[in-house]
Amino acid sequence: MSEEKTEKPTPKRKKQARKDGQVPRTPELGGWLGLLIASLAMGPLLNHELDAIRTMMAAHLRAASDPSVSLALRMLGDAAHHVFLSLLVLGSMVLVIGVVSALAQGGFYLSPKLAKPDAKKLNPIKGAKRMFGPHAAWEGVKVLLKSSVVGFLAWGAVKAMMPLVGGLLPIGVVLHQVTAEISRLIMTVAIAGLVMAAADYAMMRRRIGKQLRMSHSEIKQEHKQAEGDPMLKGAIRSRQLAAARNRMIADVGTADVLLVNPTHVAVALRYDPEQGAPRVVARGAGAIAARIRERAAEERVPLVQDVPLARAIYRHCQVGQEIPRELWAAVAQVLAFVLSRRHAGQYGGEHRTPRRTDELPEVVARARRRRRDGDAGIPA
Question: Which Pfam family name is an example for this entry (predicted)?
């Protein structure tokens, strides 16, 4: 059973739908808006054109008394210039209307996917659903509604102009009244069309919004794709930890001494006079401490049992960090003991701490430095 889609679409789903051309849009909005602007501009435009025609006719009559080729060419150029300006005004008006209607419905978008051939579009079953489905029913209702509204408004305009028929009024008055009634009719039809276009846009927006709804499983799957599968990320994290831990265990062979507590904690230290204070090359507790002890035995790294010192360094240091200044004196005693045995040719072995007291100075807490790549992610 398919899961019910009750959740709102995510921004990623909306963006993908926009790429696929699934955007609420009605082509009628631009047409009705253009018709409304044309009705508003009809009066001034008609008066301007009538004045231009009168001027042109008067010029033609004057030219008939003394015709010439240059005069005819000049008059032809004036007429062409007038036609060009008229077409420019109308074209600009159509362009502006198209831009405004597109921006009002979500802006411009290009959908190359819609231009690609798709065999699914030739499916007769889906074609029948489109012809007899809810969308087709809504299109039929729109056609009937538009026809009824336009017919009703046209009949009202014709009925209002009937008293003008009969020849009792001057032709100028009749033309003025007819022009006003036609402009009013076009404006009324355009306003009604805009209302119907807004209703059509609302229906398309609701239908597409319903199509874009998502189920809980789809949202979870999208989240996994965006953030990464938690199981896969966990596996990668485990491998990274294992690799870092193996590198740390391998570095035990470079240590000068291994401090233990006596079996639960192990901290390997290396001292290089050129680098300053001794540094921690490996640290661990429990099973990791046991592996560090085994590696130290294999590499013949001396093991010194010093419970308080091992605990203090383990608590305050990460792999790659220098030991705290407060512990320099205690560590120096241990290193002096180890180095003296090395000079005597003695390596490895397990020893008790050469320090005569278990007391250590209090270590001031410090912000943990950023871990190096070698110990990143190694648990304490």
Answer: Bac_export_2
